[in-house]
Structure to design on (967 residues):
C-alpha cells in the first residue's frame, strides 16, 4: 500500500513544478559548491607544492653557496653565511611545515580560509611565523564561501521545507484528506508515505550530486578513512534533513493553513540557520573576549625591549644596529650575536607566555562555550561535524598546530646547541635536518566525534518527533 | 546611511507589493519573495565574491610574499651588492673623494636610506598591484549589485561606518607615510652626524623632533562621493520596484 | 449497521450534538433533515471518527469507531457534498489510489467496471479530474464505495448543486446500493430526494433529533409541512 501511495503521490508532485524547480536549484548549488571546494583544495595544494619547491631550490643553492664558501671562492657577511647555524636556522634555511588538504577537504572550506595551512618554522619564537594568513579581499572573507557545506546547511533545509511545508495542510485545504481518511488508513501511514517519497528524492539529489561533485573534483576517495568519513557525512546530511522533515510534519500536525505553515517554517529556518549561529558567535566573543592581536604584538615588543635592556650592552647595540651594518667577513664576533639572540628569545618568550596563555585560555573557553551551546541549533551541530569530516574545522587545525609546536621544538633543539657551540654546518648536516611530515588525525577519534554528532542530531529529532506524533493523533480532519 | 537603508527597505516593500499583485497565488508570491531574499542576502554575496575572484584572482600569500622577497633581494642591476657599489661610486664622485672613510656623510646612513628607498619602491609596486586587484574586484561587486541590492547596501553601510577597505587603505597609507618620514629623519641624522669610523649615538632631541602620528579620518563627503554608485543602484532598485508596484496595482483585477 | 448510542459532541461548552440514538439497518436509507448547523454533518463526522465524541459511542458494524478506527472504515464509504479528488490524476487513477488505500487490489478492467457501474461515461474515466463536473466526481465517489463493497454509506448533502437529471441518477444509484444491502445515512436539504430514496427520515434541530418518520407513510406535501412546522419555533 505504501508503494501505491508513493506512486500516486509522485504523480501529484510532478504536476506541481515548484518543488522540482527548487530541487534543481539545490542540485546546481551543490554541484557549484563541490566545484568551489575542489578549487580551494587545489589552490591550497598548489601553494604547498610551490612552497616545497621553493624550499628545495633554496636548499640546493645553499649547498652550492656552502661549497663556494668552504672553498674560499666567496666571502659574505655573517648574516648571509648559511654555514652559521643562527643564519641558517633563523632565516636562510627555514623549512616549511604544511598541512595538506584532507581527502574530503572539498566538502567544506570551513575555517581553512582563515587559518594558515603552512608555516616557515625558524628558531625565533612561534609568534614570528604564525601570522601568514592567505591574502584575501576582506569583503570576500566577510561573505563566506559558497561551498558544499553552505548548500547543505542553508539551501538543503529550504528545499525540504518547500517540499513538505503543506504536506497535510494542502490536502486538507483541497478536501482530498477527508476522502483519503475515510479509507482504512491512518494519517501516520499516509504522512510516512509522503515523507519517505520526498525524502528519497531530496536526499538522492543532494547526496548523489555531492558525491559525484566531490569525486569529480579529485577528492582522494581511496585514501585511508575517506570512505567511512563520506558515509558519516551522508549520515549527518540525512539526519539534518530528517530534522527539517520532522519539523514540517510537526507544523502540519498543528492543523494550520499552508500559508501559516510556510511563514512559520521559514521563520524557524531563519532562526536556527542564520540568527542563532550569529548570536552565538557574538555572545561567545562578548563573554570570552580574546585579547586583540595588537595587544599581543605590543606585549611581545615590550617583553623584547625589557629583555634587550637586561641583556648586555653589546646586545643592545647589536639590536639597534641594522643587520646590514655588520661588516663583511667578521664572523669572529657574529656567533656572540647568535648566542645572545638565543638568550634574548628565551627571555622574551618567557615574558610573553602569560599573555599567550590568556589568549589560549580565552580561545578554549570560547570553544567550550560553543560546544556546550551548539545543541541549540542542529545547523551548528551539522556544521561542526561536516567541517570535522572535511578536515577544515577546529580539531584538525589544533592537531596541526600541536605538530607545528613539536617541530618548532625539534628545529630549535637542533640549532640552538650548534649556535651555542659555534659549530658550523656542513653539507652533510643538511641531510640530517629535522624533517616535518604531517601526521594524519587519528581516524577513530574523528569517527567517534562525528558519531556523537549524529547522536546529538537525533535528540531534536526525538524532541520534535514525539510531540508531532502525539499532535497528529489529535489531528482534526473536520470540525 | 539612513537614506541607504530607507531605499533598501522601500525596494522590498514595493517589490513585495508588485510581486503579490502579479503572482497567481499567495503561495507563489511568498516563494518568489523568499527566493529573492535568499538570493539577495545569502547567495549573491558569496557568488559575487566567487565571480570577482575568478575574473580578478587574488594572488596567494605565498606567491605574493615570494615575489616581494625576490624583488627585495633584487636581481642583476638591482641586486643589493650592485646597488651598494653604485651608491658608493656615486657618492665618491659627488664628494670628490676616493675612500668611504673620507666622505663627509656617513655611508651606512646613505646605504640604509638607499635600501629603504628600494624597499619602498618594491612594496609600493606590490601593494599597488594588490590593491588594484581588490578595487577591480570591488567594481565587479558593484556590477553584481544591480542584481542583488544587498551588495550596494553592504558597501554603503560599511563605508559610512568607516569600516570599508578604502578607508583601511587610507589609514594604511597615512601610517606608512609616517613611517617613511620617521625612517628618513633617522637615516638623515645618521648621515649627517655619524662619522665613518667611530661609534654613533643619537640623543633624545632627535626623537623630540619627530612629530607624533596624527591621523585624520576621511570626512563624510569623501565617503559619500565614493558611495554614489551604491546610492545609484539602491535608488534604481527602489524606483524600479515602485514603478512595478504601481503598474501591478493598476493592472490588478479584483478576482 | 450504523448505530449511535447516546452520541454527543460539544465544542468548548457549545453543544453541537445532544445525545443521539440512531440505528440504520442494512438496506435502509436514513435521511437526516434540518437547517445548517443542526448537527447533521457533526453526526457524520463522528461516524467517520474525524472528530472525537464528547460522550456516547458511534459504531459501524458493531465496532466502536474510536476503538476500531481502521476496521470500521473498511465497511464505510463517505461521499461529502464535494467529492474532492486529485485534480491532476484521471478518474481511473483516483479510483485506483483510493481503493488501494482501502487495501483493495483491482485490475484496470475491474476499476473501469466500477466507474461504469457508478454511471461514469467510459470515455471520461481517462480524463483528468480537474475537468470533471460535480456530478462526475460524485460518481467516482460512488465507484470507490462499490469497489470496496462498502456496507455503510455516509453521505453529506450529496445532491445539493446537482442538476435534476444528475440528482435523479444519483438517487437511482443509492437505491441500487441499498438494494444490495448497504446501510445509508444521508444528510440532505432535499426533501424530495429524501422522500424518493429514503426509507426513514429524521429531522434535526439545534443538535437534537426531534422526530423520525418512515417516508413510506408520508406524501411529499406532508413531509414538507411537517418539516416546516419543526423549523418554526
Amino acid at each position: 500500500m505504501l508503494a501505491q501511495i508513493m506512486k500516486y503521490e509522485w504523480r501529484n508532485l510532478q504536476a506541481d513544478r515548484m518543488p522540482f524547480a527548487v530541487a534543481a536549484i539545490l542540485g546546481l548549488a551543490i554541484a557549484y559548491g563541490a566545484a568551489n571546494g575542489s578549487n580551494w583544495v587545489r589552490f591550497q595544494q598548489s601553494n604547498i607544492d610551490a612552497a616545497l619547491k621553493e624550499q628545495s631550490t633554496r636548499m640546493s643553492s645553499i649547498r652550492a653557496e656552502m661549497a663556494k664558501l668552504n672553498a674560499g671562492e666567496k666571502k659574505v657577511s655573517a648574516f648571509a653565511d648559511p654555514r652559521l647555524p643562527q643564519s641558517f636556522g633563523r632565516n636562510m634555511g627555514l623549512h616549511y611545515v604544511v598541512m595538506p588538504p584532507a581527502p574530503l577537504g572539498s566538502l567544506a572550506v570551513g575555517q581553512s580560509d582563515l587559518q594558515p595551512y603552512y608555516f616557515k618554522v625558524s628558531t625565533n619564537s612561534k609568534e614570528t611565523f604564525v601570522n601568514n594568513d592567505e591574502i584575501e579581499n576582506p569583503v570576500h572573507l566577510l561573505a563566506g564561501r559558497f561551498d558544499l557545506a553552505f548548500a547543505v546547511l542553508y539551501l538543503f533545509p529550504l528545499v525540504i521545507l518547500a517540499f513538505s511545508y503543506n504536506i497535510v495542510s494542502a490536502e486538507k485545504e483541497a478536501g482530498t484528506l477527508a476522502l483519503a481518511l475515510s479509507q482504512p488508513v491512518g494519517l501516520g501511514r499516509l504522512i510516512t508515505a509522503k515523507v519517505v517519497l520526498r525524502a528519497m528524492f531530496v536526499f538522492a539529489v543532494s547526496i548523489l550530486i555531492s558525491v559525484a561533485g566531490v569525486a569529480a573534483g579529485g577528492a582522494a576517495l581511496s585514501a585511508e578513512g575517506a570512505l567511512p568519513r563520506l558515509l558519516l557525512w551522508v549520515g549527518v546530511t540525512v539526519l539534518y534533513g530528517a530534522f527539517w522533515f520532522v519539523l514540517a510534519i510537526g507544523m502540519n500536525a498543528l492543523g494550520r493553513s499552508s500559508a501559516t505553515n510556510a511563514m512559520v517554517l521559514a521563520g524557524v529556518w531563519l532562526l536556527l540557520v542564520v540568527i542563532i549561529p550569529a548570536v552565538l558567535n557574538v555572545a561567545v566573543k562578548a563573554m570570552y573576549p580574546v585579547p586583540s592581536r595588537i595587544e599581543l604584538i605590543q606585549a611581545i615588543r615590550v617583553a623584547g625591549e625589557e629583555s634587550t635592556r637586561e641583556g648586555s650592552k653589546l646586545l643592545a647595540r647589536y639590536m639597534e644596529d641594522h643587520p646590514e651594518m655588520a661588516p663583511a667577513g667578521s664572523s669572529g664576533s657574529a656567533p656572540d650575536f647568535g648566542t645572545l639572540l638565543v638568550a634574548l628569545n628565551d627571555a622574551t618568550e618567557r615574558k610573553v607566555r602569560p599573555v599567550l596563555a590568556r589568549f589560549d585560555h580565552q580561545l578554549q573557553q570560547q570553544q567550550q562555550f560553543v560546544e556546550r551551546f551548539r545543541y541549540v541549533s542542529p545547523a551548528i551541530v551539522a556544521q561542526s561535524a561536516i567541517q570535522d569530516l572535511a578536515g577544515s574545522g577546529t580539531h584538525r587545525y589544533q592537531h596541526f598546530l600541536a605538530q607545528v609546536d613539536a617541530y618548532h621544538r625539534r628545529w630549535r633543539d637542533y640549532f640552538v646547541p650548534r649556535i651555542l657551540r659555534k659549530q658550523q654546518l656542513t653539507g652533510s648536516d643538511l641531510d640530517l635536518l629535522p624533517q616535518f611530515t604531517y601526521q594524519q588525525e587519528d581516524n577513530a577519534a574523528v569517527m567517534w566525534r562525528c558519531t556523537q554528532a549524529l547522536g546529538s542530531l537525533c535528540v531534536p529529532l526525538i524532541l520534535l518527533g514525539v510531540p508531532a506524533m502525539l499532535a497528529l493523533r489529535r489531528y482534526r480532519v473536520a470540525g | 546611511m539612513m537614506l541607504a537603508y530607507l531605499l533598501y527597505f522601500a525596494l522590498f516593500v514595493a517589490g513585495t507589493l508588485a510581486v503579490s499583485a502579479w503572482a497567481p497565488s499567495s503561495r507563489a508570491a511568498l516563494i518568489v519573495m523568499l527566493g529573492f531574499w535568499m538570493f539577495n542576502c545569502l547567495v549573491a554575496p558569496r557568488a559575487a565574491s566567487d565571480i570577482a575572484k575568478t575574473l580578478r584572482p587574488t594572488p596567494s600569500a605565498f606567491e605574493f610574499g615570494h615575489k616581494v622577497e625576490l624583488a627585495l633581494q633584487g636581481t642583476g642591476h638591482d641586486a643589493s651588492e650592485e646597488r651598494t657599489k653604485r651608491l658608493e661610486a656615486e657618492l665618491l664622485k659627488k664628494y670628490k673623494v676616493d675612500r668611504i672613510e673620507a666622505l663627509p656623510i656617513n655611508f651606512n646612513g646613505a646605504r640604509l636610506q638607499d635600501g629603504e628607498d628600494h624597499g619602498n619602491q618594491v612594496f609600493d609596486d606590490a601593494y599597488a598591484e594588490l590593491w588594484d586587484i581588490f578595487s577591480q574586484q570591488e567594481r565587479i561587486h558593484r556590477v553584481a549589485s544591480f542584481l542583488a541590492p544587498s551588495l550596494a547596501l553592504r558597501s554603503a553601510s560599511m563605508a559610512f561606518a568607516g569600516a570599508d577597505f578604502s578607508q583601511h587603505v587610507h589609514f594604511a597609507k597615512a601610517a606608512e607615510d609616517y613611517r617613511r618620514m620617521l625612517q628618513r629623519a633617522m637615516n638623515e641624522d645618521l648621515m649627517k652626524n655619524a662619522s665613518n669610523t667611530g661609534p654613533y649615538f643619537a640623543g633624545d632631541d632627535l626623537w623630540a623632533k619627530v612629530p607624533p602620528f596624527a591621523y585624520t579620518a576621511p570626512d563624510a563627503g569623501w565617503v559619500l562621493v565614493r558611495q554614489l554608485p551604491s546610492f545609484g543602484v539602491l535608488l534604481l532598485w527602489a524606483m524600479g520596484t515602485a514603478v512595478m508596484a504601481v503598474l501591478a496595482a493598476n493592472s490588478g483585477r479584483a478576482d | 449497521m450504523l448505530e449511535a448510542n447516546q452520541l454527543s459532541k460539544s465544542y468548548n461548552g457549545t453543544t453541537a450534538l445532544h445525545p443521539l440514538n440512531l440505528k440504520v439497518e442494512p438496506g435502509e436509507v436514513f435521511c437526516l433533515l434540518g437547517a445548517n448547523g443542526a448537527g447533521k454533518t457533526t453526526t457524520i463526522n463522528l461516524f467517520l471518527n474525524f472528530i472525537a465524541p464528547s460522550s456516547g459511542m458511534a459504531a459501524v458494524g458493531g465496532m466502536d469507531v474510536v476503538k476500531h478506527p481502521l476496521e470500521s472504515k473498511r465497511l464505510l464509504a463517505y461521499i461529502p457534498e464535494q467529492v474532492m479528488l486529485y485534480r491532476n490524476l484521471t478518474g481511473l487513477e483516483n479510483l485506483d489510489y483510493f481503493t488501494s488505500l482501502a487495501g483493495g487490489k483491482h485490475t484496470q478492467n475491474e476499476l473501469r467496471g466500477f466507474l461504469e457501474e457508478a454511471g461514469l461515461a467510459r470515455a471520461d474515466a481517462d480524463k483528468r479530474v480537474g475537468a470533471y463536473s460535480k456530478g462526475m466526481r460524485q460518481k467516482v465517489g460512488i465507484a470507490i464505495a462499490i469497489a470496496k463493497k462498502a456496507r455503510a454509506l455516509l453521505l453529506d448533502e450529496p445532491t445539493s448543486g446537482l442538476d435534476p437529471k444528475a440528482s435523479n441518477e444519483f438517487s437511482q444509484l443509492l437505491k441500487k446500493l441499498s438494494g444490495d444491502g448497504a446501510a445509508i445515512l444521508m444528510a440532505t436539504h432535499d426533501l424530495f430526494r429524501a422522500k424518493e430514496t429514503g426509507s426513514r427520515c429524521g429531522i434535526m434541530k439545534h443538535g437534537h433529533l426531534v422526530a423520525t418518520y418512515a417516508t413510506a407513510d408520508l406524501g411529499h406535501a406532508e413531509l414538507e409541512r411537517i418539516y416546516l412546522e419543526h423549523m418554526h419555533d
